[in-house]
Amino acid sequence: MVDIKTLKNNGERGYLDGQFLIAMPGMPDSNFARAVVYICAHSTEGAMGFIINQPQQLSFVDILLHLKVIGEEEVILLRDTVRDIPIQKGGPVETGRGFVLHTDDYLSQSSIPVSEEICLTATVDIIRAISRGKGPSKATLMLGYAGWGAGQLEAEVANNGWLSCPADDALIFDKSLDGKYNRALALMGIHPAMLSMEAGHA
User: Taking the model in full, what pTM does it have?
Assistant: First the structure.
């Protein structure tokens, strides 16, 4: 699978780069049923993104303890804003790997710019920074990602598997996952009941 660094470093931008993909009814892959996917990189070599509306059973505190960033005795000292950082199922690929989508007011050597205001960091330094209140102003942690090989995503869009529209940063970081699918459709002026009549992308 092509990774995001390769996709970003080849200098190309596909037409789905920086877009939301909204799954159409009848999506054959159950991983993407009613999914909203933020495409971080898209080129002729493939695409990579994250589902932004599927909850994960783990909490951010669970992640901190698992990575030994904090000990059990330190949990009580965590700020509510740290405890409440959402953990989501980013996609079916590498589900044991964590990725943090965040605002660009935090950068480390491993941070990759995704858009003008959003970065992606997949190293534990950002987890440590967040736990200490020194991380980005907005962040969401994804376990796993969604990836497509060359031409695969374009074919799915052409086969009416997805609608697409420009991404909305507020929706990416919205902690209320319930209803995010409908709110993404609303960005396009579409009500869910209209979907059976829709085709292609906006």
Answer: 0.88
